[in-house]
Structure formats: structure tokens, C-alpha cells
Structure to design on (297 residues):
């Protein structure tokens, strides 16, 4: 099957700059969906022992962000400066460290985490060992405005067009075929539903019903997995719509708060049944297709 035609030659590539986000915590207990208290590490920082390809479940943490989470403005994360850093940083973009002992080392943008307003970036372990929270990270933002020329009813956000061929996206009979590691029923989508910030955030798979999650084998999700969310429209906001399909990528780990769980950054969406045909493939992980994270040679 041929690769879908895009307008990639019309997209701009723009630099945005940030730094690793210091981890924040109030040191107080939270309460899970069953009313049980927990006091665990949360978001931010350089997480040395968690990478793309690792499980999104099972860590003694909440909303865990793998590898490096970065911001442009730590104090004003709702500012236009920080929102722009998130918006221009697309899944698959190159990130380069431009200061400190790791200067010149490169990583890959995985996606962005709403609420904490951070960009998640995969760097190698040797690089992370040299990094500090003051290091400057330059991202070559490329992907916003991407379109599949023959399918104007498919919306695309946050997606570097250089990922299309490695992921294996192809023309199908009525639309595009997209490899994914799992299909997520729209009824499981929680925190972030109703948001119109598809271009700089994520939304969560609810995991309070642990038996149902196991039944669907969603407890096997890994950081960096591409997934299909059924009956969900992400074109102009996040909402339930029968027949719609949204493709996203897993950017943060499971959560204990009610209405939360692994976070999915929006990539591709259509409300027309059959325009996006997800096919299950265990290889549909950004680490696997780019040879990064736990899949690095």
C-alpha cells in the first residue's frame, strides 16, 4: 500500500527552547478512586530509570513522566510562552541539548502532558546522567498544520510527518491504515475530556475498573505505544461520538486519582467510520520504530 500524500513540504520548522522541569510536590497524601490515601512521587524531573518501552503500569508513582519532562517557563506554565513550547513540540521531533556537560546530545519528543504542561522527551541513559535541571533544550518544532491531502476529513495534531513511513501508515480502501498496540474504548476516557487543547496536552484512560483494564489487556501498555481510541472525536475538542476514531500515544503512567490513568497525546482523528483503520501490531511503539528508549541497539 502507498504512503498517504501530505502537505509536509508546506509546513514550517521552528525552534522552541526549554529546560528539564524541576519535580514539584506538596508532600501531602492524595486519595485514590477507592478512598485510599497515597503519598508517591509525581511529575517532572529527570527520571533516570524509566524510558520509552517500559510499562506504563506498576510503578510506585503517580502520573509518572518517563525520561525527561521539560518546560519553557516553570513558574508560569499556563503562559503563552510555555503553551507555545508545548504546541510546537510534536511527537517525533528532534530535541538537542545546547548547554552543560551533555551539550550536543540528541533526544526525541514523545508528546505533551496537559495539567502539568510539560513536554516529554526521550534521551539515552548516558545523556541523562550528564544532564542538570538548568540545561537548555532546543526542539525543532515540526508537524503542526499537517494534513493528509486525500483525506480532508482527518484531523492531524502534534505529529512529525517523518514518522508516517516508519510507523507504517498506509492508504487504505476508504482512508488510512494505522498500526497501534491497542484499542481503547471511548467510555474509558476521563480527565481531559471536553478540553479543546488538543495541540498542547493529553487526556487519560480511566483505570479504576482494574478488572476491565486487565480484560482489555490495557495493563500491558508501554510508554510510547500508539493506541486507537474508539468512538472519540478529537478534531475540535475531546468528546464521545459513535463511529469516530482517534490515534494517540502514551506519554505518562497510570494514576490513582479517580478519572485518571495513562495519558494519551492526540495525534490523528476522524468522525467518519472507516476513515482511520487501526490494525494491532506490537511494533507500534515510537521507541521500536526509531530505535530509542528500551529498543535502542
Amino acid at each position: 500500500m502507498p504512503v498517504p500524500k501530505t502537505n509536509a513540504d508546506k509546513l514550517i520548522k521552528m525552534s522552541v527552547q526549554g529546560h528539564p522541569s524541576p519535580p514539584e510536590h506538596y508532600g501531602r497524601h492524595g486519595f485514590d478512586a477507592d478512598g485510599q490515601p497515597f503519598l508517591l512521587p509525581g511529575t517532572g524531573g529527570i527520571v533516570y530509570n524509566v524510558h520509552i518501552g517500559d510499562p506504563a503500569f506498576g510503578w510506585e508513582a503517580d502520573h509518572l513522566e518517563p525520561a525527561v519532562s521539560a518546560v519553557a517557563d516553570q513558574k508560569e506554565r499556563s503562559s503563552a510562552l510555555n503553551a507555545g513550547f508545548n504546541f510546537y513540540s510534536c511527537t517525533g521531533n528532534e530535541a538537542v541539548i545546547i548547554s552543560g556537560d551533555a551539550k550536543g546530545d540528541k533526544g526525541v519528543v514523545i508528546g505533551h502532558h496537559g495539567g502539568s504542561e510539560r513536554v516529554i522527551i526521550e534521551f539515552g541513559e548516558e545523556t541523562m546522567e550528564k544532564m542538570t535541571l538548568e540545561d537548555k533544550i532546543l526542539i525543532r518544532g515540526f508537524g503542526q498544520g499537517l494534513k493528509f491531502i486525500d483525506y480532508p476529513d482527518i484531523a492531524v495534531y502534534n505529529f512529525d510527518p517523518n514518522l508516517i513511513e516508519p510507523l507504517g501508515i498506509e492508504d487504505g480502501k476508504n482512508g488510512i491504515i494505522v498500526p497501534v498496540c491497542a484499542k481503547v474504548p471511548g467510555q474509558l476516557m476521563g480527565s481531559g475530556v471536553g478540553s479543546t487543547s488538543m495541540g498542547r496536552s493529553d487526556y487519560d484512560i480511566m483505570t479504576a475498573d482494574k478488572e476491565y483494564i486487565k480484560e482489555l489487556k490495557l495493563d500491558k501498555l508501554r510508554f510510547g505505544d500508539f493506541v486507537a481510541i474508539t468512538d472519540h472525536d478529537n478534531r475540535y475538542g475531546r468528546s464521545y461520538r459513535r463511529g469516530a476514531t482517534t490515534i494517540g500515544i502514551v506519554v505518562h503512567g497510570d494514576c490513582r486519582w479517580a478519572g485518571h490513568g495513562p495519558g494519551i497525546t492526540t495525534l490523528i482523528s476522524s468522525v467518519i467510520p472507516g476513515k482511520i483503520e487501526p490494525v494491532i501490531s506490537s511494533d507500534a511503539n515510537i521507541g521500536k520504530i526509531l530505535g530509542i528508549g528500551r529498543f535502542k541497539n
Notes: The helical segments are 80-88, 125-130, 164-167, 210-215, 286-290. The radius of gyration is 18 Å. The chain has a mean pLDDT of 97.
